[in-house]
Amino acid sequence: MSTAPTVDVHAHVLLPETEALVAGLPGLAEAKALDARRNGPAALAVSGPMVRERIPRLTDPAVRLAAMDAQGVDIQLVSPSPSHYHYWADEETAEKVYRLANEATAAHCSAAPDRLRGLGLVPLQHPDHTVRALDHALGQGLLGVEISSHAPGRELSDPAFEPFWTRAEETGALVFLHPFGCTLDERLDRWYLSNTVGQPVENAVALSHLIFSGVLDRHPGLKLIAAHGGGYLPTHIGRSDHAWSTRSDAGAACAHLPSSYLGRLYFDSLVHDPHVLRELVRTAGADRVLLGSDFPFDMGTEDPVGALRAAGLPDADFHAVRGGNAYALLRKD
């Protein structure tokens, strides 16, 4: 694995054509108002200029590749900015959104197909469309899709998603779990708690739904990558194990200890703490952690390899996380 390329599985692309498609449509203003309430005015005042400054890296493949070279990254798995989910959209609009997003992401990656691989979108708010959307993404040459931690009124444990999980498992598609927005709403509207607390919470809740509902029992071959190191779940999985062992309601739907499912999932390395990264490797296994940077946003890292090196992992584990694990996934696909 020491000879494998360095692979960053958490990198985003901004798709102006998708935003142009939904501009002015009913529902967009309400969704933006909810996002504003969840984040608060101080966060929005910082985020706007931050994103604008990064637009060249988010949209121009040449600028992206130069930044990758500076970071020592050989390959990026590129996913749309989560702001493109638009889970408020009706069925007709949602189909237009995912088709345009899939095609635009594929076009962006086609500028350097040996270095840029892509993920598309599916409309979780319309479960009946998710299989079709996944197939469309794969048909564009993408490796899978990116999803949020929930859709309005639906958790990832919802039986309506069973055909989607089945199709993702059948095709070997990658599913990148990346939350957008936290349902704790205005409780997190100061000090950017909407992200610093909200994202890890949403990751932990979504993964817990997949574990405790039995989704991972029914689909053991699912290739799911959790952003942000899986949030709070991997470092607090002992509490889940205890509940599963002592309460009939907690253990009713999944067959094994919750901690045992961590070895069936993949996690990116973006935890911002070398001690937490070591614990993630311990709980999930060195073969289940993948390099991630959240390129190019400010809550990511400009030096993902350096952040990984700071964890002081054994050489074999370091190289597995740096690229060996992800390269094996990408090559299989």
TrEMBL record:
<dbReference type="GO" id="GO:0016831">
    <property type="term" value="F:carboxy-lyase activity"/>
</dbReference>
<dbReference type="GO" id="GO:0019748">
    <property type="term" value="P:secondary metabolic process"/>
</dbReference>
<protein>
    <submittedName>
        <fullName>Amidohydrolase</fullName>
    </submittedName>
</protein>
<feature type="domain" description="Amidohydrolase-related">
    <location>
        <begin position="7"/>
        <end position="331"/>
    </location>
</feature>
<dbReference type="InterPro" id="IPR032466">
    <property type="entry name" value="Metal_Hydrolase"/>
</dbReference>
<dbReference type="GO" id="GO:0016787">
    <property type="term" value="F:hydrolase activity"/>
</dbReference>
<keyword id="KW-0456">Lyase</keyword>
<dbReference type="GO" id="GO:0005737">
    <property type="term" value="C:cytoplasm"/>
</dbReference>
<dbReference type="InterPro" id="IPR006680">
    <property type="entry name" value="Amidohydro-rel"/>
</dbReference>
<dbReference type="Pfam" id="PF04909">
    <property type="entry name" value="Amidohydro_2"/>
</dbReference>
<dbReference type="InterPro" id="IPR032465">
    <property type="entry name" value="ACMSD"/>
</dbReference>
